[in-house]
Amino acid sequence: MKMSHSENRASVDELKQAMRDYRRIVDAELERVLPPADRPPAEIHRAMRYSMFSGGKRLRPMLVLMGCELCGGNQADAMPAACAFEMIHTYSLIHDDLPAMDNDDFRRGHPTCHKAFGEAMAILAGDALLTQAFELLASHLRGRGELIAEIAAAAGTGGMIGGQVADILSEGTQPDAALVEFIHKCKTAALIRQAVRTGAAIAGAAAAALDAVTQYAEKIGLAFQVADDILDVEGTTEQLGKTAGKDRQAGKQTWPAVYGLPESRRHAAQLASQAVQCLEPFGPKARMLASLADFIVTRTS
Ligand code: GRG
User: Fold this and answer.
1) Termini Cα distance of the chain
2) How far apart are CA 30 and CA 149, in angstroms?
3) Which of 25, 79, 123, 133 yields a CA-CA distance of 20 to 30 A from 62?
């Protein structure tokens, strides 16, 4: 029997509380694993910490932990991977903001890493976060080489970096539906997909469960970037914590550029609804992930 909308979703308040709780525990663990700010060479450790702790929703670590818990695993077992995903994500933001890429002055409501520490230190802080992420993964996921390889692939040229390359090379070209889907799936959805999948794999999920959460994650990953494109058009710089309206200015391939805003909103909502359907085999224990799918397309930052 199909569950009603209210049965299969946590309330907005429950989700907000859960997000605060996840954020608190992830931040405590990041505080513990990142090199202390005064450890020599202190400048790089200060730059890494500056970007890691200057805000952010902690969506990717939350997805690792929720994927693990959904499939019956222990939160503690997934915590190193959760931290690793936030480090990989933050590295990508630092590098994306550099003058050679998006040339942004603000991120997460603060001056970008290169504005605060200079370009050389920002490049190195990104490199160091990526490197430490894989150190964490290798030291905690013993015997899980295939899983670590999957994470590397999601962050690499077949995933996030590949999407970034296509995004840069397509600036100023005619809006193209196939191209924007490729960019969004690689640049954004690949890491989000892998976050949920990694949590589930750490829990030892059976093939069918792993497949179902992966399909959920693919949908929310794409929905997340479509919503991000819409926010770039509709949001303010204060609300977003980064410069609004830059996609259009740079002639980026975005969902609104191809489909317009009303159709983009409809498509984001449809992806969220399809994501929730993928969770049906899990029943009520997936209600928080179902609400998260709604949050992803209704968020304002
Ligand atoms: C490898 C340099 C490099 C870049 C990869 C991920 C990426 C491509 C660039 C970062 C900038 C960007 C617009 C990425 C798209 C994904 C996205 C919307 C990131 C922002 O994620 P949020 O909203 O950020 O989760 P917070 O600050 O909340 O963590």
Assistant:
1) 36
2) 22
3) 123
Alpha carbon nearest to ligand 1 atom 27, residue: 56
86 lines ligand 1 (CB under 6 A): no
What per-residue confidence (pLDDT) applies to 4?
64
Closest ligand 1 atom to Cα of 225 = 18
pLDDT for residue 6 is more than 80: no
CB of 114 sitting under 6 A from ligand 1? no
CA distance 253 to 185: 13
pTM of the model: 0.96
The predicted-structure confidence for 11-66, as pLDDT tens digits, reads as follows 999 999 999 999 999 999 999 999 999 999 999 999 999 999 999 999 999 999 99
Return d(Cα 21, Cα 30) in angstroms, integer: 14
Q: Measured in angstroms, how far is the CA atom of residue 105 from the centroid of ligand 1? A: 15
Q: How far is CA 265 from CA 88, 229, 298, in A?
A: 28, 10, 9
In this structure, what DSSP letter does residue 185 have? I
